[in-house]
Specification:
The chain has 748 residues and is mainly beta. It is 10% helix and 34% strand. The radius of gyration is 36 Å and the shape is flat.
Length: 748
């Protein structure tokens, strides 16, 4: 709790050193004053020493974050009356704000979204004069989007019975809705959920003497998540062996050779003994055991009247209740009641958009029909059939409750049983961020070998290129200069294999090209004697993807404006993918702009690059269908280019983001940088086969290769991939004159 008026503790107590500011004078009065001051200093010293002896807090951690708040906790300091929390956007703690609390926890509010904060805490004495040292600084970033509330606090179990637990937690405001999750597993496997508008709830239908794990989060009225879950707690239901006779024994359904029964019983009853016979006297009876409040008795004969009664058994099997009253039921002869409805139906969340429904078998060679709906009355229910005892249901909505039921049918769909009753409730899982690793790599065309120092031929460096890519495990990568000209063997003879075909072959399954066409020629069987005709190929600008992770939905390319009639065509290649695990779709584009630099006083080639960039952006706009977008490639223009980095500016003007925050002629990053972790970003993207890899002392090197993202895509990590020693020299074969860019992102 924040104490009113405690912000005054920010002012410092008077410094003892001020005593020494009084100058000694020759008269007696001054001498006496000086002696009094010294005595005061000596008298105050123990208090100052005691203040300094206050231990500093430890264990500072973030419990949860939202777009505008951070929840904190730390290890309490014994005897500490107050704590002061200091927080700032600067690691130097400049421009700090302060908060004073009397517990070892605090919530910082009114923060900015997607910003990193540096946080410390210290002990403050009750009168505000004593201060401990600050704790170690904690670095926490608020969420860029999504959760607008901190996780609820104060979750506690307030009461327990053999079959129920009463819970309460602290409010997050008026009109707030919550989701409570509980499970017998600490990992929350098989968890159940309940939605609640108050800050307390009683969970019923639990098992006696059983430990449950519980957590709570803020949700919308529709069930979407507004906060992370609170820290989990555990609580155990109580035990009771005083058993009463079950009541309300009821016939649920009779099949030709089986019946389904249901009953009520005391909460502490968990196991039951079912007695049944053809005689009302219960002579020549048989027994069956059951758990829960329902059971099936099989092995009966059609068209026969049976008598049933039931008693409860304690959990340890020692205590028995009296028998319930007796009911009778006659098995039918109708083939439509051949089977009882399948039992044990349960739904399990496989993914945010998938559920698996599973049930117990009714025998071999049967067909089952599953119906599912968001309405408990099964309005507008959809069905799916299977010969198995489980089925995966896709295309669902994340964080949504579905209702399921199942029946036995013939292979043609004729019912052989009723649907199970009641319907079973199951919820899809929360939509978690989808990790996607993207990359960009100019591998230098095989027929561009210049014989520079440290440069290898394609045959000498291709293994290093492949190893580089495989080590980073990209889901999709844009290649530039993966030339389509025939490769030559060791004797200089042409082989029927291009560089990009050689590359994808060596990467191996599951990597595939979005477009396997070699060129855009009228006659496309060879790379030479080409008369241009756009057939969707993109020369050496190619996209390769992991087919185990992604499904290719569409692809294309476009030739960009050129000024020279030579075999140096520039392209943009694009593709639309679907993430197999989540069904999320995104747009990926790869380009390679003109490389020629202008002579003094000319902007011809600069203007061409800007034109090419704008043409590529127009192609993206024409095909991306509003999807999350990645635009990668070799733009052949960096922050030092004159008169400015025009292609970069054109891309940024469309709203795409440079995660690194490069700015023209700047040695610092722009405030809009979104990358959370940087690896070797001080190395330039172009290395020119120099043994000492070009790098800078500031956070970003000089980049002509980029990975741009659309808003909403988060970037947890960026790596400019270089294998260098402690002196910054490349180790072994330099794979290319460009460095691989690997960017780990999360799809919205």
């Amino acid at each position: 709790m924040v104490r009113a008026g405690q912000l005054s503790l920010r002012s410092k107590p008077p410094s003892h050193s001020r005593i020494w500011e009084f100058s000694l004078k020759t008269n007696t009065r001054a001498l006496i004053g000086w002696l009094v001051s010294v005595l005061l200093l000596i008298g105050l010293a123990p208090a100052h020493s005691a203040a300094a002896a206050l231990p500093k807090p430890t264990g500072l951690k973030a419990l949860s974050t939202s777009t505008t708040a951070i929840g904190l906790a730390w290890t309490p300091v014994e005897g500490a009356p107050l704590y002061r929390v200091q927080y700032s956007k600067s690691s130097s703690m400049s421009g700090s704000n302060y908060l004073t609390v009397d517990t070892a926890s605090a919530e910082l509010t009114g923060l900015s979204a997607g910003k990193t904060y540096y946080i410390k805490t210290r002990v403050v004495s009750a009168d505000g004069t004593g201060l401990s040292s600050y704790s170690a600084a904690l670095q926490v970033k608020t969420r860029s989007s999504g959760y607008s509330y901190l996780a609820p606090t104060g979750l506690a179990a307030t009461a327990a019975t053999p079959t129920s637990l009463a819970l309460s937690w602290n409010s997050r405001g008026e009109g707030i809705r919550y989701r409570v999750s509980w499970s017998k597993s600490s990992t929350f496997s098989g968890a159940k959920y309940i939605r609640e508008t108050s800050t307390s709830v009683t969970l019923t239908g639990l098992e006696p003497a059983t430990r449950y794990y519980l957590k709570v989060r803020v949700i919308t009225t529709s069930g979407s998540n507004l906060s992370a879950y609170s820290p989990k707690i555990s609580a155990t239901t109580s035990s009771n062996l005083n058993l009463a006779a079950p009541a309300d024994l009821t016939l649920v359904k009779a099949a030709r050779t089986a019946v389904a029964l249901a009953w009520t019983a005391a909460d502490e009853a968990t196991t039951f003994d079912i007695q049944y016979s053809r005689y009302s006297s219960m002579s020549s009876s048989a027994h069956a055991s059951a758990s829960g409040r329902a059971a099936e008795v099989s092995g009966l004969t059609k068209d026969v009247t049976y008598y049933f009664r039931i008693r409860a058994v304690s959990k340890d099997g020692v205590a028995l209740s009296p028998y319930s009253s007796t009911i009778s039921a006659k098995t039918p002869t109708s083939t439509s009641s051949t089977y009882l409805p399948p039992s044990g139906l349960a739904g399990t969340a496989d993914a945010p958009a998938k559920l698996t429904a599973a049930w117990k078998s009714r025998g071999s060679g049967l067909t089952y029909q599953v119906q599912y709906s968001t309405d408990p009355g099964m309005a507008n229910g959809l069905t799916t059939s299977t010969t198995s005892t489980s089925v995966s249901i896709g295309g669902l909505t994340p964080s949504t409750t579905y209702y399921l039921r199942v029946r036995v049918t013939t292979s043609s769909g004729t019912a052989l049983s009723w649907y199970n009753r009641p319907v079973v409730e199951a919820s899809t899982s929360d939509a978690e961020p989808t990790k996607l690793v993207v990359a960009s790599y100019n591998i230098k065309c095989a027929n561009c070998y210049g014989g520079y120092e440290n440069e290898g031929t394609w045959y000498e460096r291709r293994d290093a290129v492949v190893a580089n890519v495989l080590a980073q495990k990209p889901d999709v990568i844009g290649f530039q200069e993966a030339s389509q000209a025939w490769l030559e063997d060791a004797d200089g003879n042409k082989v029927n294999l291009s560089q990009f075909e050689d590359l994808v072959k060596r990467l191996g399954a599951p990597y595939k090209l979005t477009n396997t066409a070699r060129n855009n020629c009228v006659k496309s069987s060879t790379p030479s004697s080409c008369t241009y005709k756009d057939q969707g190929a993109s020369q050496g600008t190619k996209i390769i993807y992991n087919s185990d992770v992604l499904t290719l939905l569409d692809q294309g390319s476009k030739k960009l404006t050129e000024l020279r009639a030579k075999d140096n065509d520039r392209y943009i290649a694009w593709a639309i993918f679907e993430h197999k695990a989540t069904g999320k779709r995104f747009f990926f584009a790869d380009t390679h702009l003109e490389h020629i630099a202008d002579t003094a006083g000319s902007t011809t080639w600069y203007d061409l690059k800007v034109t090419q960039a704008k043409e590529g952006l127009a192609e993206i706009a024409a095909h991306n269908q509003g999807l999350p977008t990645y635009f990668v490639g070799d733009f052949n223009s960096n922050k030092w280019s004159l008169p400015a980095n025009g292609p970069y500016d054109a891309v940024r003007a469309t709203g795409l983001i440079d995660p690194l925050g490069n700015t023209y002629r700047s040695t610092t990053t722009a405030p809009g940088a979104i990358v959370q972790k940087r690896i070797h970003t001080n190395f330039s993207s172009y290395n020119d086969f120099k043994r000492k890899a070009p790098s800078f002392t500031y956070i970003n090197g000089s980049y002509i290769d980029y990975v741009f993202t659309s808003p909403g895509i988060e970037v947890p990590e960026w790596e400019t991939v270089v294998d260098v020693d402690a002196d910054g020299n490349f180790i072994g074969t330099i794979p290319s004159d460009h460095n691989l860019l690997r960017v780990t992102t999360t799809l919205p």
